[in-house]
Amino acid sequence: MLSVIIIAKNEEANIGRCLKSVQWADEIIVLDSGSSDRTVAIAKEYTNKVYCTDWQGYGVQKQRALAYATHDWVLNLDADESVTTNFKAAVETALASNNADAYRIPICMHFYSKPMRFSSSPKRHIRLFKRSLACYSNDIVHEKILLQPNTRVGQLKQAIMHHSFRDVSHMLYKLNRYSSYSAKIKIEKNKKASLAKTLVGMSWMFFRCYIIQRGFLDGKAGFLFAVFNAQGTFYRGIKQLYQDVELDKLPTTRKN
């Protein structure tokens, strides 16, 4: 039996696609954090388990959503993600096999509505897991799934579709916001920043995305994706260096 958990805020452009793709699940939980658009209304068209709360960061929100789940297995999706029928079949096979207690799942990024075959996230994201063996960290961004010792971890080949970057303006908006969150975390941990470290990190990010992950095979989109990721690393380092992470100055409404 499977529960799907989704956190959301102002996701009216995405939430319907996400929820429609997981209608086969036994339970769907949506945790909203103060949407001012039609996110909640749309979610209620697909599930009667829609809850509202305040916003305290991605880790806290996902743990809150997880607390509402009632089934043995949990699939965590973002509101701007969706899954395919092949993914459904892979999950059903995995749950029936009892070969693992949690599964790492690749993420296929979309840019201008087109999937990127190579410029996607590394295959390291644990998104499917037994509820009794996992919880989320309290990180405001880049939250981690914390598994109990001796948890068996497997790997699914079928990817989650991530419709993350609608266009260039949307990508720049997200880079600005996430780099502020990341810089804030590093500042709170007293991690030192320097221009040299920032430039090295930026260069490494481009090399990783474009060469190691073979982003060059995605053509123009792959090059842009590598540049934008390097740019995000640069933003984070500079904000950390100048202690410029006043999140209340950023737009509070998330662009979909």
Descriptive key words:
2 domains; single chain; disordered C terminus; Spore Coat Polysaccharide Biosynthesis Protein SpsA, Chain A; 24% strand; two-stranded antiparallel sheet; alpha/beta; 39% helix; 256 residues
Strand-pairing-aware structural class? alpha/beta
Distance between the termini: 31 Å
Write down how many β-strands occur, each being a DSSP E stretch of 2 or more residues: 12
What's the CATH class of the largest domain, please? Alpha Beta
Helix coverage percent of residues?
25-40%
Enumerate the spans where pLDDT stays under 50 for 5 or more consecutive residues.
Answer: 250-256
Mean pLDDT: 90
The fraction of residues in strands falls at 15-25%
Number of domains: 2
CATH superfamily of the largest domain: Spore Coat Polysaccharide Biosynthesis Protein SpsA, Chain A
Element order, helices and strands?
Answer: EHEHEHEEHEEEEEEEHHH
Can you count the helices? 7
Most strands sheet: 10 strands, mixed
What does this structure look like?
- The chain has helices at residues 15-21, 39-44, 58-68, 85-97, 168-188, 195-212, 219-241, and strands at 2-8, 27-32, 50-52, 73-78, 81-82, 102-111, 114-115, 121-130, 134-136, 145-147, 153-155, 160-165.
- The chain is α/β, with parallel strands linked by helices.
- It has two domains: 2-163, Spore Coat Polysaccharide Biosynthesis Protein SpsA, Chain A (Alpha-Beta Complex), CATH 3.90.550; 167-249, no CATH class.
- The strands form two sheets. Strands 1, 2, 3, 4, 5, 6, 7, 8, 11 and 12 form a ten-stranded mixed β-sheet that branches. The protein has a two-stranded antiparallel ribbon with strand order 9-10.
- Helix 6 packs antiparallel against helix 7 (219-241).
- Residues 250-256 have low confidence and may be disordered.
